[in-house]
């Protein structure tokens, strides 16, 4: 997996603003009265703990992440939840036997993988037949600013999808990944995420970091960086700043 450009505080912040979307993504698992569910790339453990509490003691939820700090935080978060566990591990291979899991959920993970198809195949391997997979992913190519130069915006989108995020176009390729792996009953839903302040764009999309990196690497000239930043600041000061990005929720069955 590629180096992450975010930390624990970032995941905790986005968890609050994505609360409704996260809860919606749990629906595919609500009918499972007992068994084992995997939260792949669990981060701070927020969703694994929520799923464990939602589904009750008959379901064991395991979270996997390759980051020791994330796992430490996740274990602390789930200390009072008996039916959740966390494992420090890479996501490929998945440390479970074939056809052993009753569900797999993963959020904003595929975009960071250099070999996403292998991981999708691994998920297929560990799922029991007929059991659900749910993927929540960011479509970085859908990022739109409504107050800035369109040509510079295109450069920002290209940087995010090809440089900043390891597999930033993953959201648009997920259905193909799933079809090729053998998944069926694939369903895709799109959820626009609209931000009305520059502070929120910096906080939840890390736009300030990306612009600074683009300037430093020469992806943006000093003039482009200044013009783009100024247009966003001007819109924010005038209370007409707006940007949006789509998140997708894809569900499927083995």
Q: How would you describe the overall organization of this protein?
A:
This protein is of the alpha/beta class and 254 residues long. The chain has one domain (8-253): Rossmann fold. It is 42% helix and 24% strand. It has helices at 8-17, 19-25, 46-55, 68-77, 116-126, 150-164, 174-181, 198-205, 207-217, 222-237, and strands spanning 35-40, 59-65, 84-88, 103-107, 132-145, 184-195, 243-253. The chain has a seven-stranded mixed sheet with strand order 3-2-1-4-5-7-6. Helix 3 (46-55) links the parallel strand 1 and strand 2 (59-65). It is elongated. The two termini are 24 Å apart. The model has no long low-confidence stretch (mean pLDDT 95).
The CATH homologous superfamily:
Vaccinia Virus protein VP39
CATH class, named Alpha Beta
Number of helices: 10
Structural shape: elongated
* Biggest sheet layout: 7 strands, mixed
Under the CATH scheme, the architecture is 3-Layer(aba) Sandwich
Radius of gyration in whole Å, from Cα? 19 Å
- Quaternary state of this entry equals single chain
Domain unit count: 1
CATH fold label: Rossmann fold
In spatial order, strands of the major sheet run 3-2-1-4-5-7-6
Can you give the helix content as a percent range?
40-55%
* E-strand count: 7
| Arithmetic mean of pLDDT | 95
Low-confidence stretches: none
Would you list the SSEs in sequence order as H and E?
HHEHEHEEHEHHEHHHE
